[in-house]
């Protein structure tokens, strides 16, 4: 979660990229994430990532699966 005062500064993208790289280096085959419906900025971060992405909606949350 990024503090509202820092949103839009690219921190989410930096954190996501770092996490994906760390996961790959340590043998993870995928990651999951939950994003609140309507959080288009966070969805954009995941959609731009260098991984496959699938999603499903359940209870007001978009459940993402990223395969590395």
Describe this protein's structure.
- The chain is α+β, with helices and mostly antiparallel strands.
- It has a single domain, classed as Gcn5-related N-acetyltransferase (GNAT) (Aminopeptidase), CATH 3.40.630.30.
- Helix content is 34%, strand content 31%.
- The protein has helices spanning 11-25, 40-47; strands at 30-36, 52-58, 61-67.
- The protein has a three-stranded antiparallel β-sheet with strand order 1-3-2, with helices on one face.
- A hairpin with a 2-residue loop joins strand 2 (52-58) and strand 3.
- The longest helix has 15 residues, at 11-25.
- The radius of gyration is 12 Å and the shape is flat.
- The model has no long low-confidence stretch (mean pLDDT 94).
Strand fraction band? 25-35%
Mean pLDDT: 94
Q: Kindly give the count of domains.
A: 1
The total of beta strands comes to 3
Number of distinct helices: 2
Low-confidence stretches: none
Distance between the termini: 22 Å
Task: Walk across the major sheet and give the strand order.
Answer: 1-3-2
- The portion of residues assigned to helices is 25-40%
CATH superfamily: Gcn5-related N-acetyltransferase (GNAT)
User: What is the CATH fold-level name?
Assistant: Aminopeptidase
Primary descriptors:
2 helices, alpha+beta, three-stranded antiparallel beta sheet, 3 strands
Break the fold down into its secondary structure elements and pairings:
Blueprint: H1 11-25, E1 30-36, H2 40-47, E2 52-58, E3 61-67
Antiparallel strand pairs: 1-3, 2-3
Briefly summarize what is shown.
Strands 1-3-2 form a three-stranded antiparallel β-sheet, covered by helices on one side. A hairpin with a 2-residue loop joins strand 2 and strand 3.
């Amino acid at each position: 979660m990024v503090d509202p005062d820092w949103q839009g500064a690219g921190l989410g993208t930096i954190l996501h990229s770092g996490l994906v790289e760390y996961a790959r280096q340590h043998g993870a085959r995928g990651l999951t994430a939950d994003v609140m419906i309507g959080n288009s900025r966070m969805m954009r971060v995941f959609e731009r990532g260098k991984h496959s992405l699938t999603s499903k909606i359940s209870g007001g949350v978009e459940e993402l699966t990223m395969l590395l």
